[in-house]
Amino acid sequence: MPIIKSELYIKAPIEICFDLARNIDIHTQSTSQTKEKAIGGVTSGLIELGQSVTWEAIHFGIKQHLTAKITEMDYPHFFVDEQVEGAFKRFWHCHTFTPHHGGTWMVDEFDYISPLGLLGKLADKLFLEQYMREFLMKRNLYMKRIAEQSAWF
């Protein structure tokens, strides 16, 4: 049961960072390498507490669908999305934002269980955990770039 945690300082106001992290269009742009797109639920704009989104993406050459729901939210400090349906046995993803030295400290925590029991645990060790770590960091760095550009306007 890997837990991937990353921390990132963003030189932008907390509200901008929070809204970028829950923006469906920004998510789609930041995951273009997997051709990720929203195909159900909230498909554009800001997702809110209690709402869900169904994503279609290509991971490891396989088209996959995953539905996540926003289960907790305290604007602009944190929100949690959890898998409702998808490839993982379970996932819980918490996005936390704290004002810090004129910007925002973002903590991204992704706690998941792979499917397929022992085979899933082996996949985690061999490649899946690293793949997810890089996938999430690439998305976070994209958000950072957008937030810091936006902060100048």
Overview of the structural elements:
- This is SRPBCC family protein.
- InterPro entries: START-like_dom_sf.
- The chain has about 150 residues and is an alpha+beta fold.
- It has a single domain (about 5-150), classed as Alpha-D-Glucose-1,6-Bisphosphate, Chain A, domain 4 (2-Layer Sandwich).
- The protein is about 30% helix and about 40% strand.
- The chain has three helices and seven strands; from the N terminus they run E-H-H-E-E-E-E-E-E-H.
- Helix 1 packs across helix 3 (about 115-150).
- The mean pLDDT is about 95.
Number of strands: 7
Shape: globular
Distinct helical segment count: 3
Strand order of the largest sheet: 1-7-6-5-4-3-2
Could you say what the CATH architecture is?
2-Layer Sandwich
CATH topology: Alpha-D-Glucose-1,6-Bisphosphate, Chain A, domain 4
When the domains are counted, the total is 1
Q: What do we call the CATH homologous superfamily?
A: START domain
User: Which secondary-structure class do the elements indicate?
Assistant: alpha+beta
Order of helices and strands: EHHEEEEEEH
Helix share of residues? Answer: 25-40%
* Main sheet record: 7 strands, antiparallel
InterPro entries: START-like_dom_sf (IPR023393)
Protein name: SRPBCC family protein
Organism: Paenibacillus sedimenti
Provide key terms for this protein.
single chain; 153 residues; alpha+beta; Alpha-D-Glucose-1,6-Bisphosphate, Chain A, domain 4; seven-stranded antiparallel beta sheet; 3 helices; 42% strand; SRPBCC family protein; START-like_dom_sf
